[in-house]
Predict the 3D structure of the following.
Amino acid sequence: MTSEPPPTGSSPAPAAKRAGWLNRTVFGIGLASLCSDVGHEMATAAMPILLASLGASSAALGLIEGLADGLSSFVKLFSGLYSDRLEKRKPLAVIGYFVTASGMASFALATRWWHILLGRVGGWIGRGARTPVRNVLLTEATTPETYGRAFGLERSMDSAGAVLGPILALVLVASVGLRWTFALTLVPGVLAALFIWVLVREKPHPPKPQLTLKSGLRSLEPAFRRYLVGVGIAGLGDFSNTLLILWATEAWTARYGLGRAARLAMLFYVGYNVVYTISCYVSGALADRFPKRWVLAIGYATAVIPAAALLWPGASLLKFAIVFGFSGLYMGVWETLESTTAATLLPGATRGVGFGVLATVNGLGDLISSALVGLLWVISPAAAMSLVIVTSLTGAAVIATTRP
């Protein structure tokens, strides 16, 4: 089988260049993702405990996550556009990493649930500013033949941070308390910004100060537009994984008590991220060998398994092991292959716009899905999971039939 052709305007790289895909820029971006994810996953793992102590429900958590992701998506769109206008993109990424770190650390001062909302939104605005820039820097640091491995490595290092973050949160909450745990998230967040600044080498590109959102959108290929439709449909069922932590905590509280249930849920979330880490790199390597859209479509379809498992009666550890494990599996495919496939479909001149639009579509899906699934779960878990199943399978069908 063969992969999709290289993106418009590119040519196959020589063998020597293909062999050197793991360079200081790819590694620097990976280290930044590792440190940043340690910080915000520490906050993510501990956030449901703080919300529960403040009396907030799953609907409030769904609103927080959905609104943060939704607003972040608009920032990603304009950040991508703005980066195509600039001669140097890297400073925008450095600022974004620092703002994300500051937003997560602000949870240490929260006394109302809406304080957490403000911190999460602020942090995710920084995340939105950096994401399309990071993806462009990563794309330009490697070749079409190795996009899968480069993006897979970055996602794997990101998810390794997601393994370390909850573990650190468990240790720190027990040793220094909840508030200090949030304050200490600032340390890895600042390190992430420093890694981008010191290690990443940006390739020169001609700035396009005249580029507008309209002209950038019109430059996108029809295949990429169809691809966005499939991503958007699947994204309508892509709810925040913090809801899994909250649902597990609620399900186990009657048996174990709130404190032990919350710690157990965070341990299961660590398992989620171990599976996610492996899935990212393996799916990226598969994408360099097989058609990327097929690998991504299989990933979308796999979301049916944890959705169905959540509808099983009871609150057994086996049930939630299946839920967290398969959720980590499909999310590793989703997050690696969405960017990898996009890189093959985007012309070099407007990659910032393309990655920004992709991130916006994802963010809008997160805004709708996290808020809607959180609300539906309160009313009817069957309705919530039915939404996830239908959107995942429909999105998979669209992606599988999209031809570059």
Notes: The domain at 21-202+216-400 is CATH 1.20.1250.20 (Growth Hormone; Chain: A;). Residues 3 and 289 are 6 Å apart (CA to CA).
